[in-house]
Amino acid sequence: MKPSTILFFPLGWVLAHTLRCIEIANVLRQRGHEVVFAGDDPTHPDSRLHLVEEAGFRLIYAREPNLPYAWDRFQRLGWRASLWDLAHLRHWSPLTKITESQVSAIEAVAPDLVVADATVSTSTAAYITGRPVAGVMNGYAARLLTPPALTYYAAWGYDRYLLAKIRRKLYLKHGLADTDAFQQLYRMPMISPDLPGLYPLPKRFHDYHMVGPIFPDMQAPLPDWFAELENTLETEARDNTPNIYITMGSTGLLDQFLNAIYPQFAKLPYRFLVTTGGQASQATLDAAPANFRLTRYAPGSKLLEHCQAMIYHGGNGSMYQALAAGVPMLALPAHYEQRLNAKIGVQHGFGLRMPARRVSIKKLINNLERLLHEPRFRQEAARLSSAVQTSDGAANAADILESCLAEKPIHH
Questions:
Q1: Residue 222: DSSP 8-state
Q2: Considering the entire predicted model, what is its pTM?
Q3: 119, 166, 377, 364: which is closest to 265 by C-alpha?
């Protein structure tokens, strides 16, 4: 098809949301399209947008919500702080300024298609500029925005009494008629990077596609201690110590978790492989017991080839990495979306789930022992392994976006 220009707005603070957009963009670029990204400051220590530039894509500025501010408050103060922040957006997510910044980015690039991943204001910016828009959203998250989920009614009320007022002022400024945000969302072509059949499609969405998992590895070198894992398979004097992979992605409670488990996990006959993602303090790194191996980043799939179980934050990409390797998992979700994703593992029998806060170390160890010694968990993970390995989510997502380009719908 004719080469087009596509503008991505990822959630640049979160690794998974950034990496999966890059994977889709790589396919589109290979097919001859120009792909541009828009997001906040890539030099910020919590931003993942430097990965966009490292992948060779042009990155232009568009303001994002200050998610590190909100996440820090949630970690320290809990959900009450998050509720306060939702009612006081000006402190971290000034939607008018964010949307106007996205409008400026769209006008500067003049794309044929806008793609938003977890950036809720982008559809408003696309409507203002008259550009077609598509979204990336996991199906379990989309189900929160459709009845009878209680979260739908909460979101509807929040939108009606706060967000809609902000949008109306923007529409008035740009001379546009008001439009229902939920109906606009339901009409958007939506891509879910999930395995078809793993759970039901969300209701009300008119153009929803489960394209298959998109779980790229970090382009990071293997840690020095990786040779120790390979030796367990290649030397005659085999080290039969089971390996457990620990990752909390970019939105877990890792530092607190490591300090809580060190005393008891140091006594276990296992080796724990930890990718910190920069979430562990130097003091925590220095306090690691002898049976822990830590690194900031590493290709998760390579580590999982040598692992018998994974402890993680409930993140979608990490779940699929483990499934591809046939590794059962224990989720410690820190927020509601992670709990929903972790629930999939429980329902399909390849995982267990515990709350991230106030973890019972005794129960944690018991659950880990279950994953290691009850064959059914590994069997269920292995059952889905080939389907995950052979799915081509990024290419399927690119197909959907190219179909949007062919149709080129206009929202006003």
A1: P
A2: 0.91
A3: 364
